[in-house]
Design brief:
Number of helices: 7
Strand content: 25-35%
CATH architecture of the largest domain: 3-Layer(aba) Sandwich
Structural class: alpha/beta
CATH superfamily of the largest domain: P-loop containing nucleotide triphosphate hydrolases
Helix content: 10-25%
Radius of gyration: 30 Å
Distance between the termini: 35 Å
Number of domains: 3
Shape: elongated
CATH class of the largest domain: Alpha Beta
Order of helices and strands: EEHEEEEEEEHEEEEHEEHEHEHEH
Length: 395
């Protein structure tokens, strides 16, 4: 089971309340205040871990609640602080704060009176409610189109009202998602020369809480992009020890697959196999956004083409459509280095299609391979390494 997006509720621990106590001990007359301080509440902390590859742990535990601080005690004893809740997430996890729900009571109708009231309207932060009259009755109209249009021009993965609070990309990187509440002070802290026996203390402060959305964007050097049934899973299995499902029908891969390409000098490259894209993926057709977001961190894009035209598609049309989908989703993707690979060159029709492709798509080098039979893979591996090293040197 692969989970790359999950909504969770996080709550830090509340601080313990301070204690109201007076010192009582034999042979000590009229002891002063001795109430201890409450312990601070535990915080919810996220930690990036490169050993994880999805968010399945949070899928089965969507409520993250840290431990509360203990209250203070007499004889000047402070309460224990709550234990921090450390949650490990995969590298590449983005944390979005969801908008808070606000309850808006509709304005009362002056013409009609009655004991019953309509239920309150629940609006997300940033939405606007407008009261209008329809047929002599008042109605509450909600308008959120402006927020959607504004956010879509920046990032198609940004949803209205959400706020990016963290982007965990490095192993061991930590982020305090919700900070624990501070413990209250005991009455001993309020003693003065004029008020020597205060009989009050501070309550503990509440911990932070909120609803969040965790979104995983896989970090890899190379991203495989292509139409369904183009041979991406076969190529990943030939380049690495990954064993994705391989079958002769479209949409065999339903979620991103990760493979590690190892060289003789122990250099390693991470390859991400994105599920097949279809026309309209930039508009989230066929879960396009769910797949496309995983290649936004890739340094090199590999455009894999079915040169045999197995599904009655022309390779040059596939190439143009793929570039068009990438540009409509994020124009910056076309500025990244890319390698164009012609797969299934073992088929008889592939040679003639490759010649037609070069006539129609000029000034675009094409690498010929047959992933199922390991043909042309040594040269392809070297070209991928050179492209990644060139990108790293210029970064």
């Amino acid at each position: 089971m692969f989970v790359d997006e999950i909504k969770i509720f996080a709550q830090a621990g509340h601080g313990g309340k301070g204690c109201v106590a007076l010192h009582r001990e034999a042979y000590v007359a009229k002891g002063g205040p001795s109430g201890g301080n409450g312990g601070g509440g535990g915080s919810v902390i996220l930690e990036a871990d490169h050993d994880l590859n999805n968010l399945i742990n949070q899928f089965f535990k969507p409520r993250l609640i840290a431990q509360e601080g203990e209250p203070g005690m007499g004889k000047g004893m402070d309460g224990h602080a709550g234990r921090d809740l450390i949650i490990k997430v995969p590298c590449g996890t983005m944390v979005w704060r969801l908008p808070r729900k606000e309850t808006i009571e509709p304005l009362p109708d002056e013409e009609t009176e009655g004991p019953s009231k309509p239920p309150p309207m629940i609006l997300a932060a940033g939405e606007r409610a407008t009261l209008r009259s329809v047929g002599g009755e008042r109605a509450l109209e909600i308008d959120w189109t402006d927020e959607i249009e504004e956010s879509s021009t920046v990032d198609k993965d940004v949803r209205p009202g959400e706020e990016l609070v963290a982007d965990l990309t490095t192993n061991g990187q930590r982020f305090v998602l919700c900070e624990g509440g501070r413990g209250g002070l005991g009455n001993r802290n309020f003693a003065t020369s004029r008020r020597q026996t205060p009989r009050f203390a501070q309550p503990g402060e509440p911990g932070d809480e909120g609803d969040f959305r965790f979104e995983l964007r896989i970090i890899a050097e190379i991203g495989l992009v292509g139409y369904p049934n183009a041979g991406k899973s076969t190529l990943l299995a030939a380049l690495s020890r990954a064993r994705p499902k391989v079958a002769p029908y479209p949409f065999t891969t339903l979620h991103p697959q990760i493979g590690i390409l190892e060289y003789e000098d122990h250099r390693r490259l991470t390859i991400c196999d994105v599920p097949g894209l279809i026309e309209g993926a930039h508009m989230n057709v066929g879960l396009g956004h769910k797949f496309l977001r995983h290649i936004r961190r890739c340094k090199i894009l590999v455009i894999l083409l079915d040169m045999a035209g197995t599904d009655n598609r022309e390779p040059w049309d596939d190439y143009k459509n793929l570039l068009n989908e990438l540009e409509l989703y994020d124009p910056e993707l076309l500025n990244r280095p890319r390698l164009v690979v012609a797969n299934k060159m073992d088929e008889a029709v592939s040679e003639s299609n490759l010649k037609k492709f070069k006539r129609r798509i000029t000034k675009t080098p094409v690498i010929s391979i047959a992933a199922a039979f390991d043909l042309g893979l040594p040269k392809f591996k070297q070209m991928m390494r050179e492209a990644v090293e060139d990108e790293e040197s210029t970064a």
